[in-house]
Amino acid sequence: MAAHSACDFGGGRAEKLALAKYRQVIWQGRVLNSQLSDEELRNTGRCPLTPEEIGLILVALGFDSTTRFYLASHKVYGGEARISSLRKLFPLMEDKRSLASADELANVEGKASVLAALDYHISMHSDVFISASPGNMHNALLAHRAYRNFKTIRPNMTLLGHIFANKSMEWSEFQQAVQAGHKGRYGQIRLRKPKQSIYTYPAPDCMCQG
């Protein structure tokens, strides 16, 4: 995801070269985003949110350190160094490896589809769900949770791109901007956009009429 986005995650020249090499190996360099600058990508909401950014958004929306937090991910880009800031904000954070026993993990080790299914199941039944960026699992969960009328925070990626680019913003201003920009983005049922796949959003086709 990080490589395909072509965004700058603050790792300097070494990071840029590593991600560019990965894009060349996997997609032979055919990634449209790589033709745009990082500023253009962020201003149009095309960059995945980092763990720290997700944490700041949730705190701005009213979640605190007592919130039980499940991290659904195969591997976070940047590893523990990236996750540590999120863990400080939400010390009750868990993932499948911290929740499962050694024997349980041994039974699914190397089975990527089973591990992804476990993440999906827990994400599906969480009180609130938020995703760092669009993707196949994001789209499926968004649709499934909408069908079940579960609370899902849909990050305003374009707005957040502008907000995080402003390094001089005070916390109170940041909090106000995030809250104002996410009114109506908590999973309220809306009509599916023209040409949007029914598998990514089932309303109104799969909804009962009152």
UniProtKB/TrEMBL annotation:
Keywords: Carbohydrate metabolism, Fucose metabolism, Glycosyltransferase, Transferase. GO terms for molecular function: glycosyltransferase activity. GO terms for biological process: fucose metabolic process. InterPro entries: GDP-Fuc_O-FucTrfase (IPR019378), GT106_glycosyltransferase (IPR052272). Belongs to the glycosyltransferase GT106 family. This is O-fucosyltransferase family protein. The lineage of its organism: Eukaryota, Viridiplantae, Streptophyta, Embryophyta, Tracheophyta. The gene is LOC125509515.
